[in-house]
Design a protein that fits this description.
CATH architecture of the largest domain: 3-Layer(aba) Sandwich
Helix content: 40-55%
Structural class: alpha/beta
Oligomer: single chain
Largest sheet: 7 strands, parallel
Radius of gyration: 22 Å
Number of domains: 2
CATH class of the largest domain: Alpha Beta
Number of helices: 16
Strand order of the largest sheet: 3-2-1-4-5-6-7
CATH superfamily of the largest domain: Glycogen Phosphorylase B
Strand content: 5-15%
Amino acid sequence: MTRRQDAGSPGPGGGPAGPAAERVSGLRVAYVLGTSGGGTGAHVAMLAGACAGQVAAVTVYGPAATGQRFFRRGPAAFVPVEIADRPRPARDAAAVLRLRRLLARARPDVVHAHGLRAGALAALALAWPRRAPALLVTVHNAPATGRAAGLAYGTLARIVARRADAVTCVSGDLAARMRRLGAHDGGRALVPAPAAAPPAGPDIAAARASLGGAGRPVVLAAGRLAAQKGFAVLLDAATRWQHRVPVPLVAIAGDGPLEGMLRARARAGGLDVAFLGQRGDVPALLAAADVVVVPSQWEGQPLAVQEALRAGRPIVASRVGGIPDLTGGDGALLIPPGDAGALASAVLAVLDDPALGARLAAAARARAGALPTPADAVASVLDCYGRLTARRAPGAPEARGRAAPGQGREQR
């Protein structure tokens, strides 16, 4: 993956591209996020924990359930603010008022909101104070399907684009969408997989044995059992290789709201699918697979793809969002999202052509060496914080204000 040199990205080798440590050491940073059951919460927990050792103070604001899951331990303080995961006017208004009071009391230098809902509510909470902090919003997800969801997403995106001092996005398509709305582009957000040692041989063997199906090729997918992940498409693809001997074994690691539906679909199709639930040995499972499949409808910088690249496994994935940026043109076979026929053909091409599988595996290992690290992500946001607050220093020329720069705001 080529590391971008735009605003908010680390320089060559992953070091900070901008401010020296003293420019951020005195900052007070507030993170705001909504309901999270996975990647966003873990990412914010990583950033908050790492930044807490490099800035003056870090506080995280979000739903109590998110705090229980990701922020029970660590150096960052957590304050509950119930930000709903969908439009709820009364609860949203209460969240804005509570967040406004809390931020006015804490007086952070930077508010870094993650997700459009958290970003829009933070923007509204900061709409009136005389001395407002810089607002950075990271956009993690594309619009959900459906007209109502699309309209809600568009409304939130316009609020964020108009009011945030900078917007970072996890993929190029999101960044282009926000630029069209007039957002100040803060660069590509880096969402790396956690650092982890490669699994040992015995662990890989144990993971493979736990799947059963001795002698059968393993087609592995991992992720939350939700519509975005496209696992129903994987099951449809699997119906197209049931004539093979031996029949490839489909294994899906993860849990989520669609588990019952997916199990019923597998039974109806006469498919032998191993639903593994939540597993603590996903890196070993990936290393044990013959093919790793990521059939998502959309992704930003999916951890499953990053971990599969590290494992050096052949990957078949949807050409959506940030996946091509991670894999490049040679690190995976990329297919249209939702196309079960193309997915089945790509999987069978890998299983039937050992040379193709070996080339994909080698390219995956090479791509893994260029993936951003957690240290890169922390350096990137600290650089962004330093530049945003430098704009507000007394006497500094303002690079770009919000929609109404200076109105009711005293610039730092």
